[in-house]
UniProtKB/TrEMBL annotation:
Requisite cofactors: Mg(2+); K(+)
Cited NCBIfam families: yjeF_cterm (TIGR00196), yjeF_nterm (TIGR00197)
Species of provenance: Methanofollis formosanus
Stated name of the protein: Bifunctional NAD(P)H-hydrate repair enzyme
Cofactor note (record): Binds 1 potassium ion per subunit.
Reported function: Bifunctional enzyme that catalyzes the epimerization of the S- and R-forms of NAD(P)HX and the dehydration of the S-form of NAD(P)HX at the expense of ADP, which is converted to AMP. This allows the repair of both epimers of NAD(P)HX, a damaged form of NAD(P)H that is a result of enzymatic or heat-dependent hydration.
Alphabetized UniProt keyword annotations: ATP-binding, Isomerase, Lyase, Metal-binding, Multifunctional enzyme, NAD, NADP, Nucleotide-binding, Potassium
Catalytic activity: (6R)-NADHX = (6S)-NADHX; (6R)-NADPHX = (6S)-NADPHX; (6S)-NADHX + ADP = AMP + phosphate + NADH + H(+); (6S)-NADPHX + ADP = AMP + phosphate + NADPH + H(+)
Pfam families: Carb_kinase, YjeF_N
Domain YjeF C-terminal: 204-463
Length: 463
């Protein structure tokens, strides 16, 4: 991939804390370590602090990576009188602890506090400081800070010092300047680039796995979602591959509505009379579609059942369309994911061949996404778009050209769609499918079967 040609697909504007954590993790997987990111962030804040030429600087830290950023600032400001206050207890990230070890060899004065009285005894430091650095709590933290941070917040707000914030303000604090990293987490502030590779944002990666929240201890049957797969007739195995993939992706209950039953005791078969799925089956299919969290249509369906899909689609809260369902008139549910390869994309859009270059293909996909939907264009590099954002997936291997892998991807997408948005489900499905294929192929470029991918999916997603 030539990333010079893909710069236009980098997102702009504010970024959610969850997405920023994913980008950070993707960046680390691309070889930019956590300590490197922390050092770059701390240097950006250091430059902002030096703008007012302070003599005394007070750095307030929590015990997370935001606090680690603050410790980097303290280490780089040894030309000043620097005091650092941080909690002496509680869990700490490895990044914070590593930076604390480095700072012990520097001239900064370290004040580890446990009690409210210990913070109050340090009140003169707040009054004497020219600049206070707020590095107490980072992205994703909500609510009122607990002690001893709460008292530190009150003293900082009452201080005449200039307040410089690392990334996001600690809840309840004032700030004269927010130095935010990579992209703003909220409106305002100064954005500092910290060396995150472009691919960490525009490509899928291990950070995408962080979107999946673990089930709670009180989880019950069905909390992972129910999927209805409508397919089969001319081609029998496809809907069952898709259904098993949905189970492996985390769906709790999967039904296969098909004219043919195959031995799969983990699935619920809904028998449909005849050799093809037709409109006469809608009386059975509509109630099942209305109760399902996600409906998947198209796998093994053939070309004679499109009227059924079109009629069934409005009854689906969430709909995944694959294979033979990808044709005009294009069906749509309340929320829809389309999973075409290049020929199916041309068929479902009524357009011609896609451009040969990756950027051109991505523009074409983005322009073709219906409102409220996402498109996952399968290829050597998968392209996912919701009409605004574009993400590229590079996982996978040549052995995945074997038949059935597309059905596995569609089922995996449906299973994830029970819990994620259309765009997020499509991105994660593309990434996880590619990793499962790589694991199943075990370095071979041929000889893998789609069924071998199924057992790899849970390890990729949840292992």
């Amino acid at each position: 991939m030539d990333f010079r040609e893909l710069q236009e697909f980098c997102e702009t504007g504010t970024i959610t804390p969850g997405r920023m954590r994913a980008v950070d993790k993707n960046s680390m997987a691309l070889g930019v370590s956590g300590p490197q990111l922390m050092e770059a962030a701390g240097l950006a804040v250091t430059a902002a602090v030096r703008e007012s030429a302070p003599s005394r600087v007070l750095v307030l830290c929590g015990r997370g990576n935001n606090g680690g950023d603050g410790l980097v600032v303290a280490r780089h400001l040894q030309e000043c009188v620097v005091d650092v206050i941080y909690p002496a207890y509680g869990s700490a990230t490895p990044g914070f602890l590593a930076q604390l070890d480095s700072l012990r060899a520097c001239s900064a004065a370290l004040h580890a506090v446990r009690l409210l009285a210990e913070v109050e005894a340090l009140a003169p430091l707040f009054e004497q400081a020219d600049v206070i650095v707020d590095a107490m709590l980072g992205t994703g933290v909500e609510g009122t800070p607990r002690e001893p941070l709460a008292t530190m917040v009150g003293l900082m707000n009452a201080s005449p010092a200039r307040v410089v914030t690392t990334d996001v303000p600690t809840p309840g604090t004032r700030s004269d300047l927010i130095v935010t990293f990579h992209r703003p987490k909220e409106p305002g502030g100064r954005v500092a680039e910290i060396g995150i590779p472009l691919a960490a944002e525009i490509c899928t990666g291990p950070g995408d796995l962080m979107m999946l929240r673990p089930k709670g201890a009180t989880a019950h049957k069905g909390v992972g979602g129910e999927v209805l797969v409508v397919g089969g007739g001319p081609y029998q195995g496809a809907p069952y591959l898709a259904a098993l993939a949905a189970l492996r992706a985390g769906a709790d209950i999967v039904r296969v509505a098909s004219p043919v039953a195959l031995p799969a005791p983990d699935l619920i078969h809904v028998p449909l009379a005849g050799n093809r799925i037709g409109t006469e089956h809608l009386e059975t299919l509509v109630p099942l579609a209305e109760r399902a969290d996600v409906v998947l249509c198209g796998n093994g369906l053939g070309t004679e059942s499109h009227a059924v899909v079109t009629a069934l689609a409005p009854h689906a809260r969430r709909l995944v369309l694959d294979a033979d369902a990808l044709r005009l008139p294009l069906p749509a549910g309340n929320e829809t994911i389309y999973t075409p390869h290049a020929a199916e994309f041309a068929r479902m859009t009524g357009g011609g061949a896609l451009p040969a270059d990756l950027a051109g293909r991505a523009r074409a996909v983005r322009a073709a996404v219906p409102e409220g939907a996402a498109v996952l264009l399968k290829g050597a590099v998968d392209i996912v778009s919701d009409g605004a954002r574009v993400r590229f997936n590079r996982s996978g291997c040549p052995a995945m050209t074997v038949g059935g892998t597309g059905d596995v991807l569609a089922g995996l997408t449906a299973g994830l769609f029970c819990r994620l948005s259309p765009f997020d489900a499509a991105c994660l499905a593309a990434y996880a499918s590619g990793l499962a294929g790589e694991a199943a192929a075990a370095g071979r470029d041929a000889g893998m079967t789609a069924t071998e991918m199924l057992e790899k999916i849970p390890q990729v997603l949840y292992g």
